[in-house]
Design goal:
alpha/beta; GIY-YIG endonuclease; Rossmann fold; seven-stranded parallel sheet; six-stranded parallel sheet; disordered N terminus; binds adenosine-5'-diphosphate; binds zinc ion
Length: about 750
């Protein structure tokens, strides 16, 4: 390979051209390469020699020929068309620039794995339609369909799915029945299905016809109420131009119905809709609702999907075969042949912010993308982010409000249980216990929320006070009953739990409560009750989550204990009591966004109660019932809370009244990260003095709030600016200087633009 790379290093001549190529390496620059003959297409992949290796990059621009420079040749052109589309490529270039990240890596994020590895873009030529057929008439009774399907359960399920459906898109069958390729082949061999390998258009028509016949016709099962109708009309009137809307609707106000109405209009105009949801909210319920409304030509994208399915969905979206794309964060980069609308549900959710590598914010990029594509974008939330609310107040988003729950359902009553007066046992106070008992007697469902897995978050010696801590992190170990283990929830390290003190040998006490302890305790108190625990220990796969949620829906559960996993997106219509075990962790956080996150979380969880006709009740256990944030949660007073919060942010000069960037560094050496960031600060301060950007403020480098994590010592450096442009002007040269600084090799470092979590 090295010899080859050397051989193609030639001096450019007039006959050949030059293109800029972004390579998937952590380098914040692009490279020039030469080509001969027809220019490689912008947005297409090329193989290029890079050092001693060959890498797969993407052509991002054409360059005028530069005769005097020695440039290497492109070794192979892989694509003849722009894989992303012009606007999406522009978005990615913009984003790499804005987040000061390697463009090559950003482009990788947007490509399916197969394409990153250089596989050709195969058209889904298998986008044929299939249908069931009766087996050939024969005198051999063994040949009946039933007999042919004996001992082949998957084949039987597919066959029965297809029976009476007419032609069905093969892609839909693959989505519906994962890993069904072999089964379909066998069915074909047995003569039980026939496959129409039609030309693209024919297959498309067949698929369309199939979608219309198999799945419910896309009629709206819900009659929108006037505020919903107004919102849908306002969004619907915005066609073929950019417009951004904040759909601020209380929990259960029917925001989904508005999105779907807007999406349906967009689809009726022949355009595609992109719907983004937070990682955790991609529930089977939501997917089913969307498919029911928009038909089967919806493709779903999330992290649990296999690479192959992602690729399939990516292609369907890119070719315009999918009318809607429903996905989590990275779905914002899905290529769309004919985009018409973007929806960002729960826009405040911080899972939209990527927390490592390419640290983009999918909501912000959705807005940018909509403006590049000239289409509307809808941000929906019951508790908009302070940035979003501020932008709406400034007139940058048009505000649409839904202030009631349709059908007369009311918001739940929220009350506090003062933990100073009612000491909890195993996490649960007497008043909460009595309330649960009462609901159980009425045969109603209760939900008990605690965002802490495990049995006990603290293992401490009763004699000398020694606490079990993680050797690799500044964190305590959580005791887990399953396997009697201590687990670190930060680095994942687990070990056998020693129940004797490591310091004095005395007995260890398990203090505080996690979800396992709640389960244990409630089981003891209510032996008859059917209790389900939903947390990451219990619900390890999407299938398990689906099973659990279905059981809850069908009323097969009396008490649901859960973490964040069940806070959002799920419609638990039978739950009438929500108990919040611990709300105080966030009241004393160092993060200036903590009150906002607390408000969002408690509103979400409370929103699970009383969504049907029975009125709901929420009981929050707290030692601080007078706390202003909790008081505004009790009154369902988002506006009051937000006004107060924004006033504080303005006074303290925090976002949205300033813009932040956070340098982070970590090292196994105890002092290296901090030393390195002091150096970064010095470099920055020199640049700041040079370019006289008064609005920018470089703070001191400090040790991170949790200094040690997974064996590394961490430090951070905050930069703040009143003006975004000034911040980016400074960062441009600053990052470049650090990237080329030999000291940068002493620590792992990263730069986070608009950081959402300060730790
Ligand atoms: P949100 O996302 O705003 O919290 P959802 O969209 O989940 O609320 O709607 C809550 C419930 O209200 C759902 O069960 C939905 O079917 C129902 N719903 C929505 N709009 C209407 C309407 N116009 N009439 C009756 N029920 C509605
Ligand atoms: Zn001890
Ligand atoms: Zn740890």
């Amino acid at each position: 390979m090295r010899a080859f790379a050397a051989a193609v290093t030639l001096v450019a001549t007039e006959q050949t051209g030059v293109v800029q190529v972004a390579v998937p390496l952590p380098l914040r620059r692009v490279f020039d390469y030469r080509y001969e003959g027809a220019p490689p297409v912008r947005g297409g992949r090329v193989k290029v020699p890079f050092g001693a290796r060959t890498v797969i990059g993407v052509v991002v621009a054409n360059r005028p020929p530069q005769p005097r420079r020695r440039l290497k040749f492109i070794s192979e052109v892989l694509d003849t068309e722009n894989l992303f589309g012009e606007k999406l490529l522009d978005l990615l270039i913009w984003a790499a620039h804005y987040y000061h990240h390697s463009l090559g890596e950003a482009l990788q994020t947007a490509l399916p794995v197969a394409l990153r590895k250089g596989k050709p873009v195969t058209e889904p030529s298998r986008s044929h339609a299939i249908r069931a057929r009766s087996p050939e008439p024969t005198h051999d009774r063994e040949q009946s369909a039933q007999a042919l399907l004996l001992r082949a359960p998957l084949q039987a399920r597919i066959y029965h799915h297809l029976r009476g459906s007419g032609w069905v898109d093969a892609g839909a069958i693959r989505q519906h029945f994962p890993n069904s390729g072999a089964a379909v082949r066998r069915l074909r061999e047995k003569g039980l299905v026939e496959v129409a390998v039609a030309v693209e258009e024919k297959a498309e028509m067949a698929a369309r016809a199939a979608a219309a016949s198999v799945f419910c016709p896309p009629t709206n099962p819900i009659t929108l109420n006037p505020p919903q109708q107004h919102a849908a009309d306002t969004i619907g009137d915005c066609t073929a131009r950019f417009g951004s809307f904040l759909l601020h609707g209380i929990t259960g106000s029917g925001k989904t119905a508005v999105y779907l109405e807007a999406a349906q209009r967009c689809i009726a105009n022949g355009a595609q809709t992109l719907i983004l949801v937070p990682e955790i909210a991609l529930t089977p319920q939501l997917v089913a609702t969307v498919k029911e409304r928009l038909g089967d030509r919806v493709c779903v994208l999330h992290s649990a999907l296999s690479a192959e399915k992602r690729y399939h969905a990516w292609r369907r979206a890119r070719q315009g075969h999918a009318v809607a794309v429903l996905g989590t964060r990275s779905a914002v980069f899905t290529p769309l042949k004919n985009p018409g609308l973007i929806v960002v549900d729960e826009e405040h959710d911080i899972s939209y912010k990527q927390q490592n590598g390419f640290r983009y914010h999918a909501r912000d990029l959705a807005i940018k993308r909509a403006s590049l594509e000239n289409i509307p974008v809808v941000l929906g939330s019951a508790t908009p982010a302070m940035e979003t609310r501020h932008n709406a107040q400034q007139g940058r988003h048009q505000l649409l409000r839904l202030s009631d729950r349709p059908g007369g359902a009311r918001l739940p009553r929220i009350n506090f249980i003062n933990l100073k007066q009612h000491r909890p046992f195993d996490g649960i106070s007497m008043p909460l216990l009595r309330a649960i008992q009462q609901r159980l007697a009425q045969r109603e469902q209760c939900l008990v929320f605690l965002n802490r897995r495990g049995f006990a978050p603290l293992a401490q010696c009763y004699h000398c006070g020694w606490q079990a801590g993680c050797a690799r992190c500044d964190a305590r170990l959580t005791y887990h009953r399953a396997g009697e283990r201590f687990q670190c929830h930060h680095c994942g390290h687990a070990s056998k739990a020693e129940m004797a003190c490591a310091a004095c040998g005395e007995r260890i006490l398990l203090l505080g409560a996690g979800t396992q302890r709640l389960q244990h305790f409630l089981k003891k108190k209510f032996p008859e009750a059917r209790i389900r625990r939903l947390d990451r220990d219990q619900v390890t796969t999407q299938e398990k989550l689906e099973r659990e949620l279905e059981a809850i829906q069908r009323g097969k559960t009396d008490i649901i204990i859960g973490t964040q996993l069940l806070a959002k997106g799920h419609d638990f219509s039978k739950v009438t009591l929500v108990g919040i075990v611990d709300s105080d962790q966030r009241l004393f956080s160092v993060d200036f966004r903590a009150p906002e996150y607390l408000f969002q979380q408690l509103t979400q969880v409370s929103g699970r109660a009383g969504r049907a006709t029975s009125p709901g009740e929420v009981l929050i256990q707290t030692a601080q019932p007078e706390h202003p944030t909790l008081q505004s949660i009790r009154r369902h007073d988002f506006d009051g809370f937000a006004d107060h919060c924004l006033t504080e942010r303005r006074a303290a000069n925090y976002p949205p009244f300033s813009h932040l960037a956070l340098w982070r560094a970590e090292s196994t050496d105890k002092t290296a990260a901090l030393k390195f960031l002091r150096h970064v600060a010095a470099v920055g301060n020199r640049k700041l003095a040079d370019c006289r950007l008064q609005q920018v403020q470089i703070m001191d480098a400090v040790i991170s709030p949790m200094e040690k994590l997974a064996g590394r010592y961490r430090a951070q450096l905050m930069v703040r600016s009143a003006r975004r442009s000034a911040l980016h002007q400074l960062l441009g040269g600053w990052v470049e200087a650090i990237e080329n600084d030999p000291q940068a090799r002493r620590a792992r470092w990263s730069l986070d633009i608009d950081p959402m979590e300060i730790f």
